[in-house]
Amino acid sequence: MYDEWVKSVPLDTEAAVAFLAELAGSGPVLELAIGTGRIALPLAERGIDVRGIDASEAMVARLRAKPGGDRIPVSIGDFADVGVEADFTLIYVVFSTLFALQTQEAQVRCFENVAAHLADGGAFVVEAFVPDLTRFDRDQRIETERVGLGDVWLGLARHHPAEQRVESQHVHISADGMRLLPVQIRYAYPSELDLMARLAGLALRDRFDGWKRAAFTGSTGTCVSVYGRAV
């Protein structure tokens, strides 16, 4: 469902690819949670040596079925482990997928393993949402995401503030029946990401409101952070 669902999300893929290509240098680069290749494929089309890691064999199969997807090396596994044998000029994770790691420990481990695979002068880029707890009423949320002539999408979520976790369901109801698409995340604020980086020997280089390098204010709800080795 991912490729179909993501079409309804306002994503600036072109700007993201341009941003990352500028940091890639001579490569190689590694995408954590490469998925179906929304970012990796256009980067590879620019001649950049892109590699990936993902836990979902089904997502990677979708990548493989796309033009050029069979030429991108992908390791199957937990992206927090960065289970590859190489150093990279750029490692990146987009679309708040870092938060798919369910604990602070896993997120810290990810930063540590990224640091171990960064080439000298390399960058780690994290795109993530800025948490907005006003979205929840009594730590829960129900919303109508989309309404069509023959179907409806609903979003239901429960917030666990002490653990910074959100359990949610995207519910698709149509004439064919009902389908549940669960999502579970553990969110972190930008300052916490910076602390994770510091623990891994990294430091914040830049932070923007989005891929077009607007000054970070938090007003857009999106945060693009660029980390490098601490000096």
Furnish the topology, listing elements before pairings.
Blueprint: H1 2-6, H2 13-24, E1 29-32, H3 40-45, E2 50-54, H4 57-64, E3 74-76, E4 88-93, H5 104-116, E5 118-129, E6 140-147, E7 151-160, E8 165-174, E9 177-186, H6 190-199, E10 202-208, E11 222-229
Parallel strand pairs: 1-2, 1-4, 2-3, 4-5
Antiparallel strand pairs: 5-11, 6-7, 7-8, 8-9, 10-11
Summarize this structure briefly.
The chain has 231 residues and is an alpha/beta fold. It has helices at 2-6, 13-24, 40-45, 57-64, 104-116, 190-199, and strands at 29-32, 50-54, 74-76, 88-93, 118-129, 140-147, 151-160, 165-174, 177-186, 202-208, 222-229. It folds into 2 domains: 2-131 and 189-229, 3-Layer(aba) Sandwich (Rossmann fold); 133-185, N-terminal domain of TfIIb (Single Sheet).
Overview of the molecule:
The protein is α/β, with parallel strands linked by helices and 231 residues long. The chain folds into two domains: 2-131 and 189-229, Rossmann fold (3-Layer(aba) Sandwich), CATH 3.40.50; 133-185, N-terminal domain of TfIIb, CATH 2.20.25. It contains six helices and eleven strands. A seven-stranded mixed sheet has the order 3-2-1-4-5-11-10, with helices on both faces. A hairpin with a 4-residue loop joins strand 7 (151-160) and strand 8. It is globular. The termini are far apart. The relative contact order is 0.14. The mean pLDDT is 96.
Q: Return residue spans where pLDDT drops below 50 for at least 5 consecutive residues.
A: none
Order of helices and strands: HHEHEHEEHEEEEEHEE
Oligomerization state of this entry? single chain
- Radius of gyration in whole Å, from Cα? 18 Å
- Estimate percent helicity: 10-25%
State the strand order across the main sheet: 3-2-1-4-5-11-10
The third-level CATH topology of the largest domain is: Rossmann fold
Strand content: 35-45%
Characterize the biggest β-sheet.
7 strands, mixed
Task: Round the mean pLDDT to the nearest integer and report it.
Answer: 96
